[in-house]
Amino acid sequence: MSAYAIEAEDLVKKFPRRVPPENQPSSKNPFTRLFKHPPLTEFTAVDHVSFQIQRGEIFGLLGPNGAGKSTTIRMLCTLLEPTSGFARVNGYDVVKEANLVRQSLGIVLAGERSIYWKLTGRENLEYFAALYHIPPEIARQRVNELLEYMELTNRANELVEKYSTGMRQRIVLSRALLARPPIILLDEPTLGLDPQAARRIREMILDLKNQGHTILLTTHYMEEADQLSDRIGIIDQGKIIALDTPAALKRRIHQQDVVRLEVAGWKPEMAAKIQAMEGVNQLITRSLDSDSVWELHLHTENSRAILPRLIEQVNYNGTHLVNMNIVSPSLEDVFIQLTGKALRD
Amino acid sequence: MEIATSQPSLVKASLSRTSLIAEIRAFYTIIWREWLHFVRYPTWVIAFIIWPILFPAVYIFSSFALAGPGGAGIPRFLQVAGTENFLGYIVVGTTVWMWANTLLWNVGFALRGEQMRGTLESNWMTPTSRFLFLVGTGPVHAATMLMFFIFTVIEFRIFFNLTFEANLLSLLIVFLAAIPALYGLGFTFASLVITAREANTFVFLVRGIVMIFCGITYPISVMPAWMQTVAQWLPPTLIIRAARAAALNRAPLSVVAPDVLLLLAHGAFWLTIGYLTFSQIERRARLKGALGQY
């Protein structure tokens, strides 16, 4: 048995992409403009990504939308072939031994449409159990176990189209667990769920780790990555830019204070003035519920030194401070420090 | 929520065990799933009752008009078609065409349906062979087409007093011989679905061409010579010709044998082409990431 559950080395995935109209050389001939096929270029979704995941570990891939998380998972589960580099899952090459990889994996891809809505929850699981080549007597037992574990036994014989989003996601998770695979890939497993359903899925993920499964989790929710992951790879623009335990990642910016302010009447042009203040290293602004109140995340080496000037800056010309606190660095602050932008940008 | 610190015993191997038996079981389950989907969309009942009579009716009433007063044109039809039973000629032609058409596009449409539903990737992430997903929808379509045939015969008996002089064994052999060729073409078409992701335009184009060339309501001998040459190379032409002989003239096996052998040759050729094309295109889709796109 391979020492690692998952190994990726120099994994690259490029996709052909049409050149956007604004970047195409313009032609004066209107017919040429109308019928010309836009030229193709290459877009690198995953850019020389390397990591190893220990057996029994929850490994989180944290990054904003479009960072390359899902593409990485799709290469690992054999839906995509890497452009270059290699990856092994449970010791099997994802290209050359694709079927052995599929036997080793349970997969939850983002979205709730990966099961049949016109079948019942039980029928879905029985169907996928056969596709995973699970012997029928074991499959029956496994389906019952999972329905019970997911608290779906009472609704098992109803069509999935009548389920709530959270229930559908539990069926999707059950499908991933049918073959009791050593490795589980979870691509944004709580995306679109209400807070209660999301908490239930997170509890299950921790429980699966305790049962001895290795889990690769992608998420753009920093709290989720922080709560669940033993180690986290922060991914941005296809590259892993930091990889460590959540605590170690946050320690990287411990020498910095993180000041969080809420400002009413905020004007975007004020950002440049604050950014230019001596002692301010990073500033991220985002609108809160109402457009008039904005949240400012500010990294500084000495919050005490800049606070008086900062308050003076924001309480100016119709804007005023609504709330302010100095907070512990979060994974988002790590991301901000590494990329200069917020996770939700 | 705390992360557990104690080291649990690791899950080392999954319950998934690939074998021939497991693949057969998976194939059966794909058929079962397809059947459940079929019966849970009950609009098919309307299609089954109305369509068998609706589609040929256009041609039948045209033929009544063309036959002239007192069926004056029928001797001419006998001359070119080899039968006076122009009603049966049209019904067999249109029904076989509908069957061949369904089988031909069924694989591609089933694949496209999975892609649109969002279930294609979850199926293809399993260790089950891709080709089982392609052929798995076939048996349900075969069963539904059998029901369609039965409805056709009953409805035409009631409304047009139509009788068939059929050699059922010959008819069965013709249909069985046609399946590999139609599936081979279906695999090739399925490759197109993965590549183009929008295949309706192509389907309507080919469907129209086949409809004209294969002589579903007229003998191909009425077409220009070059069209007859093209028609001879199209499997649906052979199926319709042999099925008419078996269903209307009680043709024994020896009469339909040449068409049956040609269909089997087509089957071997198109299955090979379909398999190779699909394998290549499926790999290309994995390189381009086109599987889950719609």
From TrEMBL, chain A:
Domain ABC transporter: start-end pairs: 6-262
Keyword field: ATP-binding, Nucleotide-binding, Transport
InterPro entries assigned to the protein according to its UniProt record, in alphabetical order: AAA+_ATPase, ABC_transporter-like_ATP-bd, ABC_transporter_ATP-binding, DrrA, P-loop_NTPase
Recorded GO MF terms: ATP binding; ATP hydrolysis activity
Entry superkingdom: Bacteria
One example of a Gene Ontology biological process annotation: doxorubicin transport
Protein family: Belongs to the ABC transporter superfamily. Drug exporter-1 (DrugE1) (TC 3.A.1.105) family.
Record's protein name: DUF4162 domain-containing protein
Organism: Anaerolinea thermolimosa
Record lineage: Bacteria, Bacillati, Chloroflexota, Anaerolineae, Anaerolineales
TrEMBL record, chain B:
Compartments (UniProt record): Membrane
Domain of life: Bacteria
Annotated Pfam families: ABC2_membrane_3
Keyword Transmembrane: yes
ABC transmembrane type-2 domain residues: 43-281
Any one GO MF annotation of this record: ABC-type transporter activity
Membrane topology, from the record: Multi-pass membrane protein
Keywords: Membrane, Transmembrane, Transmembrane helix
GO cellular component, one term: ATP-binding cassette (ABC) transporter complex
InterPro entries: ABC2_TM (IPR013525), ABC2_TM_bact-type (IPR047817), ABC_2_transport (IPR000412), Nod_factor_ABC_transporter (IPR051784)
TM helices/strands, residue ranges: 43-66, 86-111, 131-154, 166-190, 202-226, 260-278
Claim: Transmembrane is one of the keywords in the record: yes
Name of the protein: ABC transporter permease
Provenance organism: Anaerolinea thermolimosa
